[in-house]
Amino acid sequence: MSVASKARGSVAALQALTHFATHPREMVHFATHRREMMDVYHEYPEKFVYEFPVVDFRELLEPEQRRSSLQLDFEPDLYGDVSWQELVVLSSLVAHYKPKRLFEIGTFMGKTTMHLAANSPPDAKVYTLDLPQENFEEIKKNLATYDESLVVDGRKPVGFHYRRSPWANKIEQLFANSMAFDESKYAGQMDFVFVDADHYYPSVVNDTRKAMAMLSRKPGSMVLWHDLGPKTDVERGIIDVVGKQGVFKIKNTKLGICRV
After folding, report:
1. pLDDT by residue for the chain (260 residues), tens digit each?
2. Are 121 and 243 contained in the same domain?
3. Beta-carbon-side half-sphere exposure of residue 169 (alpha carbons within 13 Å)
4. Domain containing 128 — which CATH number?
5. What are phi and psi of 119, to 5 degrees?
6. Which of 59, 85, 62 is CA-nearest to residue 72?
């Protein structure tokens, strides 16, 4: 490395330290996402110690039903999206278990929402929850952990992908802060719940409690979480609400699953 390159690196490091010194919340986000990105960089090595056993998702499918046709749309991933591998897993589980009522906490741009609708039975209903878009800037001020990177870098409107799809009529968009959302209307009715909203401990605990309350107790019903990593708030929140029994981390993904 040249002297000039080292100098540029030192200047950049100094600028970063100065920035984080005056923006401490961003430093927390940076540290958290860097830890999670290291997991991605190493291609989800199973040598990382998870509190849950690791399972190949194909083991969750009946052997005679492991061949199935899926509806998949591999648009380029943006930060905040699930990966294409995770889309395959989610779509396969939906196609296999055929849930009639699905609930997603964290719509984002609706890519996952669209796949849940596309691979569920024709008469299925998908409910998806995201933050209200009216007075959005004001709402963000009250969310101490809101990740600003989720509203930049080309993010399109909430539900963008599913709204222009053939399955839009199967989806009902709900707007509320999940911390204040009243799930009682949906209690015990959902066959499939996917939690992918705020990944900080208080929100994970809140969303997990509500997901479990909404879950039906029919055989094959399940809750899945995104961004499950070792020693993360997602892992800790799941353990504190659900425990370790019956929860698995799906191999080669950042998905956790609990089945009835």
Report:
1. 444 443 444 444 445 445 445 544 444 444 444 445 444 434 444 556 789 999 999 999 988 666 778 998 877 666 668 999 999 999 999 999 999 999 999 999 999 999 999 999 999 999 999 998 775 555 555 554 545 544 544 556 889 889 999 999 999 999 999 999 999 999 999 999 999 999 999 999 999 999 999 999 999 999 999 999 999 999 999 999 999 999 999 999 999 999 98
2. yes
3. 4
4. 3.40.50.150
5. -105, 0
6. 85
> E strands along the chain, which residues?
54-55, 101-105, 125-130, 171-175, 192-195, 222-226, 247-250, 255-259
Residue 4 sits in which domain range?
1-41
Instruction: Say yes or no: 37 and 145 in one domain.
Output: no
Measured distance CA(180)–CA(100) in Å, rounded: 26
Asked if residue 67 and residue 14 are part of one domain, the reply reads no
* Statement to judge: residues 28 and 119 lie in one domain: no
Q: How many domains does the chain have?
A: 2
Neighbours of 123 (CB within 10 A): 7
